[in-house]
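Bench log. Compound arrived from synthesis this morning; before running ITC I wanted a structural hypothesis for how adenosine monophosphate sits in the protein. Inputs:
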Amino acid sequence: MNPIGIIGGGQLARMLSLAAHPLGLRCRVLDPSAQPPAAAVAEHVRGALDERAAIEQFTDGLSVATCELEHVPEHGLAYLESLVEMRPRAAAVRVARDRWQEKSFLRGCGVETAEFRLVGDELDLERAIEELGLPLVLKTRTNGYDGRGQKVVCDRAQALSALAAMRGASLIAESWVEFDRELSVAVVRSVQGDIEMYPAVENRHTGGVLRWTVAPAPDIGAALSDQLDQIARTVVLGLDYAGVLVIELFQVGQRLLVNELAPRVHNSGHWTIEGAETSQFENHLRAILGLPLGSTSATGGWVMFNLLGGEPDLARVLELRGAHLHLYGKAARPGRKIGHVNCRTPDPWNARSRLQGFLGLS
Ligand code: AMP
């Protein structure tokens, strides 16, 4: 069978490629680095994501291409789309990579989000403060991830200096949400239109970066579950989507506000490697190839911890019963996601406190 193309060669591409192997499938990644994490397990075409010659080499003989990241430059995305079948469609990637388009799309489908305004200059910002109140979150429309490209501002002076510091970038201002917790849900839709949903999970962030995930999220009653189902179906149908899509949400009482869409597999779904009957990676491949989807049921209670910065003591991690270590083959650097631990446990809070010290969890 022809290889499956993955745009980007990071850890998500690596885990997709690993999931492809037992199915007898091969992946090819496009990535500008010399040795991206996926290169150990997939063919690698080295080149920028908007470099025509590299894109031509990458797409040569591919069955289908998918993204492991949404921040693909428009030139590259348009050229890729003209040469190879993209799943999900490039149009879905365009919506999800731009916070303005993303939130406008969600509102257009009747899905609740924080209030937001487009900010081009000081006048827009003054108006946003007046209409949305303070604090506000200023976010770049594109290229923001892991808390980058955003600033919480508590007064007018802070807002104006943040605008000056982010000058040049196109921004949105978002009202501050006093949420009870953060949830996400992964939904998968095949090219035939079959839809499956993983159980919703609870995510804990520090400084905008995901630190750990509890799966399934505790205390999801029928009302929240129905809303999650409704939101997920509305979004995948609205985008005519194929593949795994992850929806990040704020829970406020029994209300759900969507914060972000990831048109790809996602960090909050890493627990599915051992924790679900079919991992998000395998189901993404099944979905984009038009194969039957696998069960998304959880095999128990799981917690996923991100490893940030340096490598942990292997023996100490594996001492924890039910722990599975996944390292991405990345060089250690402060704050960098270099791996994660999935741990099967009936008591995620206890597993967390056992790992807290040496994993530096906060
Ligand atoms: P984002 O880059 O939009 O995913 O934001 C990263 C993190 O910042 C989120 O996971 C939240 O913890 C926090 N955050 C983002 N937007 C808001 C908001 N409007 N109100 C409160 N917290 C937010």
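What the model suggests: DSSP finds twelve helices and 17 strands in the chain. The CA atoms of residues 128 and 258 lie 20 Å apart.
ITC booked for Thursday regardless.
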